[in-house]
Amino acid sequence: MRSVTTHSPRRRGDGSPETLQEAMADQLVGQPAAVSAIVPYVQMYQAGLSPDGRPAGVFLLLGPSGTGKTKTVETLAAALHGSEKHVLKVDCGEFQLEHEVAKLIRAPPGYLGHRETHPMLSQARVNSVTSERSSLAIVLFDEIEKAAPSMTRLLLGVLDKGTLRLGDNNTVNFERTLIFMTSNLGAREMVQAMEPTFGFQGAARRGLAVELEGHLEKIGMNAVRRKFAPEFVNRIDAVVTYQPLDEAALGMIVELQLAQLQQHINSRLGLRGFNLRVHEGAKRFLLTH
């Protein structure tokens, strides 16, 4: 199990983290590999060194539910744009049938629904998730393994050339875009592989960490290669396998969620707001349930 860094990041005088990596690490607990994999691509874009003719970065995030895959994307959006909502999200579970994929690009002229269908992946939609703080858009294909095969064929051109031709022959440019795909491929096997390690404490558990991490990555990549064609997998810049969260990491998540609840109370109630005080027994109850 991956160890969790508990020290506080260096901060500027105004109390904010100095770097994007620290800003993400503040909110994304227990998954430093995900932060380390993503941040360099943002830095390359900011330095003007992103490759021409393809997206600024393409990532496949693997792991069981509840390990922080979607949270990673939301955390990056908050760090870049100031809001977790600055993400163009495509729920692939809604595109399990071949004809449903047409909703992404609009039906061609002459086909039924051409006038009524508005493409989900239009240039305007992509531009809407940028901000004054950053011109880098974030597009998320959630649970990509659920989509019809035509979805991955559609994405091949996007991942390779950074463009997408819509049904009305307009072109969408994805060169200023980070594309994320999340998947539960291999999750069942990962959970089964993790079960023998649960209950071990101290040195015994730490000794299994590196071995377990490598085993989970192997399980994830084998599942990916069984599901997707090699030409699709080869266009992914980084595959991140999320590690199981230990008790310390889950405790930190509880603290973060309580802090977010306090912020929500303050912003919604104003002068009528109140301060939360949660004793350790209540935190343990929340953690258990």
Which structural traits does this protein have?
disordered N terminus; 11 helices; 5-stranded parallel β-sheet; globular; two-stranded antiparallel ribbon; 45% helix; alpha/beta
Based on secondary structure, the structural category is: alpha/beta
User: What overall geometry do the principal axes of the alpha carbons give?
Assistant: globular
Mean pLDDT: 82
Q: How much strand?
A: 5-15%
Total number of β-strand segments? 7
- The DSSP helix count reads 11
Order of helices and strands: HHEHEHHEHEEEHHHEHH
Which regions are unreliable across 5 or more consecutive residues at pLDDT < 50? Answer: 1-17, 108-112, 198-207
Largest sheet: 5 strands, parallel
Q: Which strand order spans the largest sheet, edge to edge or round the barrel? A: 2-3-6-1-7
Helical content band: 40-55%
Straight-line N-to-C gap: 21 Å
User: Radius of gyration over alpha carbons?
Assistant: 21 Å
How would you sum up this structure, described in words?
The chain is of the alpha/beta class and 289 residues long. Helix content is 45%, strand content 11%. The protein contains eleven helices and seven strands. The protein has helices at residues 20-27, 32-46, 69-81, 102-105, 123-128, 149-161, 187-194, 202-227, 230-233, 247-269, 280-288, and strands spanning 57-62, 88-91, 137-142, 163-165, 171-173, 177-183, 238-241. The strands form two sheets. Strands 2-3-6-1-7 form a five-stranded parallel sheet. Strands 4-5 form a two-stranded antiparallel sheet. A hairpin with a 5-residue loop joins β4 and β5. α1 (20-27) packs antiparallel against α2 and α10 (247-269) crosses α11. The longest helix is centred in the last third of the chain and has 26 residues, at 202-227. It is globular and about 60 Å long. It starts with 19 loop residues before the first helix and ends with a helix.
